[in-house]
Fold this sequence. Notes:
Strand order of the largest sheet: 1-2-3-4
Strand content: 15-25%
Structural class: alpha+beta
CATH architecture of the largest domain: Roll
CATH class of the largest domain: Alpha Beta
Order of helices and strands: HHHEEEE
Helix content: 25-40%
Shape: elongated
Number of strands: 4
Low-confidence stretches: none
Amino acid sequence: MADELPADLQPALADQEDYLFPNNNRRRVPGYLYLAVAVGLVALYFTRGDGVLINRGLLGGAAILAVVGVYSILAGGNLDVDERDALVAASREIGFPIGHAAAQLGWRGLLSRPTWRILLYSADEPPTKRGLVLVDGLDGSVVESFVEDNPEDWSDIDL
């Protein structure tokens, strides 16, 4: 009997299903919750007065929650570009046919804009060029690209 992963732990590629990457706009939900709690704290302070348990500390907490809530809403942009769209944008940018490629989603900047990092190699065997292209996940624009001759030595490998 061979070792085998249970069916529920099999990777999506084993079933040839597309993997749906979680959308960045989920950050908005806690942002709205933070704002609602902040409004509730302000309302509690102004309806119950200034006492031992309900004091100006609630207003400070409400201010912090409001700032974090607004940030969460602003940073929760909708991820409209999937890895395939990012690969298409990267292929237009680099100017050579793509062989192997890998995509990774990261975030950049103060507002954490989702950005696809596409590492790609040319289609010839062995690859003579490689590149790295950063594609914005919100609008699909190319943020930055770098292409170079492949410095890897493939002479020891029998292709």
